[in-house]
Design brief:
Elements (H helix, E strand, L loop, with lengths): L13 H8 L3 H8 L9 H10 L2 H72 L2 H12 L1
């Protein structure tokens, strides 16, 4: 509708004329050749990022960051494993020392038991030695 054109039709309001001449939003994007993100497929969107110069560097930075975190976590796990191995070695050594100590205590106990047995045997053979032993112990 042309506003200068006078026709015999019933006059439309200005609003109705503007609405009828305004294209639909989808036709605007189609007319300009630009697709909105919802109209693009995921593949097209990803290809757009590959074509841009900023995207690969951002992807490379992200990959480098992830790789650095991975390397750091591997180093941490290796150090943790070394610490656990050292702790296990220390625990094993401590266990060996405890076993040696117990062996020595057993030897000492056996020696004391043997001495007591010999002393009892001596007292059975010679009862007067018991009085000598009592005197020695009472003096101390």
């Amino acid at each position: 509708m042309n506003f200068l054109d006078i026709s015999s039709e019933a006059p439309q309001s200005d609003y109705e004329g503007l609405v009828s001449e305004t294209p639909e939003p989808a036709s605007v994007s189609e007319a300009s050749g630009v697709k909105t993100p919802k109209q693009r497929s995921l593949r097209e969107t990803l290809m757009m990022f590959r074509k841009k110069q900023a995207a690969p560097s951002a992807v490379a930075r992200a990959a480098a960051c992830i790789e650095a975190e991975h390397i750091q976590s591997i180093k941490y796990m290796q150090k943790e494993e070394e610490r656990k191995e050292k702790q296990a070695e220390a625990d094993r050594k401590e266990q060996e020392l405890w076993m040696d100590l117990l062996k020595e205590k057993i030897k000492l106990t056996k020696t004391k038991t043997l001495m007591h047995e010999k002393l009892l045997e001596l007292m059975d053979k010679n009862p007067s030695s018991l009085s000598i032993l009592k005197n020695v112990l009472s003096d101390e």
